[in-house]
Amino acid sequence: MLVLASLALQLAMGVVFFVGDAVMVLAYLLAWLLAVYVGQVVARTEARQNLDAFWFAVLGAATLSVGLALMQWLDVEGLNIFLLDMPVGARPFANLGQPNNFCTLCFLGCAGLLYFHERGVVRGTSFGLAWCWLSFGMALSQSRTGWLQIVCLVVGLWWLGQRIPLRVRRHHLVGMGIVFTFWVVTLPWLADALLVTAGRTLGEQMQGGVRFSYWLSMLEAVLQRPWLGYGWLQTGLAQQLDSASAFRVGIFDFSHNIALDAVLWTGLPLGLGIVFCFLFWTFQQFRRLNNGIAVMTMLALAGVMVHALLEYPLAYAYFLVPFGFIMGTLHGLIPSAANSGWGLGRRFMAGLAMGVAGFFAIIAHDYFSVENAVRNLRFESAHIGLRSEPVPVPTIRLLTQLDALMRYGYRDPGENISKEEWQKTGWISDRFGLSFVMFRYALASGFYGNSVGAKNTLEKICRVHNKSKCQNVRIMWSQWGKKYPFSIGSIDFPEVDN
Asked: Where is the O-antigen ligase-related domain positioned along the sequence (predicted)?
């Protein structure tokens, strides 16, 4: 309810620029809600094999992904049809496209393995071999998040084992931690022996990077707009407005911390309210844990949340939906919790599911229409091909932010630009923060007679994006100035520190 209230308020106040962004937030919220409901229903039925099917799928996906990542790491040829190519010097990621996401999938596989161990299905040697394989995958990702997840696993089960009977004993936990540590320490040596890239050294993994500095700059941005925030999905706007966030690595779509994202997007009152509600629910479930299956389910939830506090796994539907299912499962596994809340009728939920399916179908149609049009617009913008007429922009029903991006972000503004066109170009510049969109907004401001706005936008490009993009923008601005000497040519490129 807090999310819906904040969406309605931000749309009414003009904080969110495009209805399409609210549509995407609503779509993710509905997908999560349905997953929570299904998880609770499955957990409350007597047919627990339904839960077995879910965890078997997770364990199978993680096991297979480790094999794919190993093939990426060893540069095995002939599998391009099944496996994404890994850039030279990169870390393995299987088919998830991102090493940390691959690590979290492996951790969920570990949680599934412990679930089956608790059910008495997997024991002894088979459990040990499976743990070695999955922990090797986590180490292979070279993710610092994996270290925290393993610490959470070992410490959490050690402590909970004191009050809840668990099949996994303390000596098992010690052995599991040792195996993971062994893989982490020996991976660089193994890479050298096999003459493959190590991705990054153990020392590099121990460095913090720019994440902490970025968090501080985003906290400063929160204080600049404490009440309503910057709008859902508009983290990039906060980065553009905050002069302290001069990392020159491009726009971050997320703050790499889900709690900070909530506060950035909705402001301090609603953001802290959303965070508090989740923490309160989590604390209630933790207090009510009374069996090993529920403990392993809570463990899986904790692993994803550790990742969400460092990056944005829940921005991916393939994590958000299982996360919601696990939340519902945890709620349904605990008797005192299962008897309260989530009491929605099955007919209502079935009708909601059908409505959501239609809603998603329209979104999918919009997306694929945009994908095809954007490809042609990029060719048009780069002057590739012999097209004599402009690329037609398809009719978009819901994803209005992408419609505006196609109309004003991929096409150069005209010298006689209208006020409406100038405003919408500014909206997509603030919303997306892409260098080519920001450059077109600077051009639009120059044509509209807003020289100060043009200079500010050019300065933002050089502050937010890398040096090569700044230099490229400088060259293009000079070229446009020669073509339009009385508008663009009259505006000097701002002095920036290169």
From this structure: 133-273
